[in-house]
Amino acid sequence: MRQQDRKFKPNTTKPVRAEITQFKVTEETELLVFLLAKITSRSRNDVKILLRDKQIYVDGKPITQFNHPLKPEQVVEVKWKKAPEEARYRGLNIVFEDQYLIVIEKQAGVLSIATEKQKDNTAYSILSSHVKKQDPRNRIFVVHRLDRETSGLMMFAKSEKIQKLLQESWNATIEERTYLAVVEGYVEKKQDTITSYLVESKALIVYSSKNPEVGQKAITHYEVLKSNKNFSLLKVNLETGRKNQIRVHAKDIGHSVVGDEKYGAKTDPIKRLGLHAWVLAFKHPITGKDLRFETEMPSKFTSLFN
Question: Pick the catalytic residue: 59, 98, 120, 147?
């Protein structure tokens, strides 16, 4: 090839797109409006797919809501490479796993662990099979539980040592446990703290007492997110994690969780218990890293407020 031919040979190398693109917010707006203004090379539908597939982050957190409000100084990230699919099983999704523990999102109707009546198709049995696929000697250990009809985030340990570490330092390790609760009626007090001592009867019904000598202290903080004349959607933070705590405290304030006949509910509009473990944040017992997991709000919950 002559020198002049080589000199004018066109460059056919394709430009490499960065795996992550960052944008700084300069004025209040909604997320989709902001993205459409910044990502001009993609169609509106393409941008919505990025949101759906959890490839859009705001200040480090994945956001899927197209109308999520943005404020100045926030940072929006686009992760162009789709994350690997979460491991999915019937009744639960694995949202995080390492050599020490597993975090799952459990669906309503799935037992956390076996009972005398049901041994199979529990979160525990499904995860036991999952870890044994990697090594038949592997086991999992229960750290905490969710009621069968409660959906949301749960954590299991992969060794007895990790189980004990988590259980013995639970209050110090857990940084946030936030639930969503749909309750009956219009809750007038927009936020409050409920404190009582919980006692379980021989009939396995938990009730509140003011006597610290007979029960376990339970503290529940709530904030009303949405309401109408029939129902209220509460954001609930647990300071203590007692059996049936939210359900009992909801009854105590005269607004039972929907679908919870055991604790006084008169209605069942979504054909399930209106309780969802929304956020779980904790310090990793081995690495010390802060981990935070947030699920999507169940569509059955929001449908009551449309």
Answer: 147
